[in-house]
Design goal:
Blueprint (H helix, E strand, L loop, with lengths): L1 H13 L1 H36 L2 H5 L2 H4 L1 H6 L1 H10 L8 H35 L10 H24 L3 H6 L5 H7 L1 H16 L7 E4 L4 E8 L3 E6 L4 E5 L2 H4 L3 E2 L1 H6 L2 E9 L9 H7 L6 H16 L16 H14 L11 E4 L7 E9 L4 H18 L13 H11 L3 H4 L13
Antiparallel strand pairs: 1-2, 1-5, 2-3, 3-4, 6-8, 7-8
Length: 432
């Protein structure tokens, strides 16, 4: 038996090409077998162990593929180490194989670290306060640094040179690199300022009209901030624009617990007048005006008594107006409205008269910031005010419409039978 083995060995040594091919085939089979064993036995066992932990359940380790990527290092190591044992293998082939395997190992490790950073971001986002200080932008900077270092190591491995040689040449390329990564550097600085100054957070309602963005922030990354508009479209904004461009953040309103109502009723100025005794008596039916009318009546009586003889002329006296009473009614109505925030600014004021009427502005805050509830409260208030307005002898101003013109048409254009002159009568133009 030993003699036969020696004879087989001597024969193989004489067949150098066959020996090299057989050894290469054996090396490839060994690499494939190691890859199969690692992925089907070792990796599955690791997944089972990690899956029982909290990190494995919530960190999405299996979906990230980090362990599978690291398992690819094993066959690369087998090829890199085993190629040197293949007899009669050319030196150039050995060096190329080792260099390619080394570059592949570096790339695999870089991808695995990037996947690990994604897992870290996922775990961080599960914290209740994660939206206040997002770390996604910082992790992306780390990824860029890792891939930059990996690129240098891969090139150094492929050309079989020290990485220090490549690093020494980066000094001359600094200006070029700054130009290439200009946006990245600006975005990094902007991300730091946004995070340190707490300018925006995920979930904030921001409004940037010059970019047609009006909605909630759904993602803050290194280069971009995603805003989901109210029409469900998504606007992607460069991160640096939140430092250089003006925008409105509605977070203060949401945290205050109240949302502002600032809307005016435009009244017909010709309907404003002093109230007669009958009108005052009719307004006393309003429970909300009892205190106001009593206080106002006493105030005007005291004032008019000081006029002495001049007070006998009505034009010299102060009197209650319908618009003043309506303004007081609105304020008392809002004070008694449970949907209005009573600890915030509340007032009813007149603005400067315009060609469209006299603006009577309501300025107050609701006790909710929910959009639909806010719009409902605001609509209910103005529904009531528009309906109660005629009780005060006031009219809402509006431009003449088609219905108004139809009402005026009979007076401006009489019917044909009315306009037809009698028989024999002369048709004369109307006197001015």
């Amino acid at each position: 038996m030993p003699n036969e083995l020696n004879t087989w060995t001597e024969w193989l040594e004489q067949q150098r090409e066959l020996l090299t091919f057989s050894a290469t085939l054996a090396l490839i089979l060994a690499a494939w077998l190691s890859n199969w064993l690692v992925k089907h036995i070792l990796v599955r066992a690791i997944y089972r162990v990690i899956g029982a932990t909290t990190v494995g359940q919530h960190g999405r380790i299996k979906e990230s593929g980090i362990i599978k990527r690291l398992s690819n290092v094993v066959p690369a190591l087998v090829l890199s180490s085993g190629v040197m044992l293949v007899p009669n293998m050319p030196v150039a082939v050995v060096e190329v194989t080792r260099n390619v395997c080394s570059a592949f190992i570096v790339l695999t490790i870089a991808l695995a670290i990037a996947a690990l950073l994604d897992i870290l971001n996922t775990l961080y986002q599960r914290r209740p306060s994660a939206h206040l200080k997002p770390i996604k932008g910082y992790l992306q900077v780390i990824k860029i640094a890792i891939f930059a270092i990996a690129a240098i190591l891969i090139v150094a491995a492929l050309i079989d040179r020290s990485p220090l040689i490549l690093l020494s040449g980066l000094g001359a390329m600094a200006a070029v690199l700054l130009l290439i990564f200009q946006d990245t550097l600006l975005s990094l600085v902007a991300s730091v300022q946004i995070s340190s100054s707490d300018i925006i957070r995920v979930g904030d309602w921001v409004e940037m009209p010059n970019l047609n963005a009006d909605g909630d922030v759904i993602d803050i990354a290194l280069h971009t901030v995603k805003v989901q508009n109210w029409d469900k479209t998504i606007t992607t904004i460069p991160t640096k624009r939140f430092i250089t461009d003006p925008f409105k953040n509605w977070r203060g309103m949401q945290e205050s617990g109240g949302r502002r109502i600032k809307r005016a009723l435009y009244l017909d100025q010709t309907s404003v007048h002093f109230l007669s005794d009958e009108e005052i008596a009719r307004l006393r039916r309003f429970m909300l005006l009892d205190e106001y009318l009593d206080h106002k009546d006493q105030e005007l009586r005291d004032w008019n008594l000081k006029l002495a003889e001049h007070g006998k002329q009505v034009v010299n006296t102060r009197r209650i107006t319908n618009i003043g009473s309506f303004r007081a009614y609105i304020e008392h109505y809002l004070r008694h409205n449970p949907n209005i925030h009573q600890n915030m600014t509340l007032m009813v004021r007149q603005l400067s008269p315009t060609a469209d009427g006299l603006p009577l502005e309501i300025y107050c805050f609701t006790n909710t910031v929910a959009w639909s509830a806010y719009e409902g409260i605001q609509s209910d208030i103005f529904d009531h005010l528009l309906a109660i307005l005629p009780e005060f002898g006031l009219r809402v101003f509006q431009h003449p419409s088609g219905a108004d013109m139809r009402e005026l048409r009979p007076a401006l254009h009489p019917a044909p039978e009315q306009a037809q002159p009698a028989a024999g009568a002369s048709v004369l133009p109307p006197r001015p």
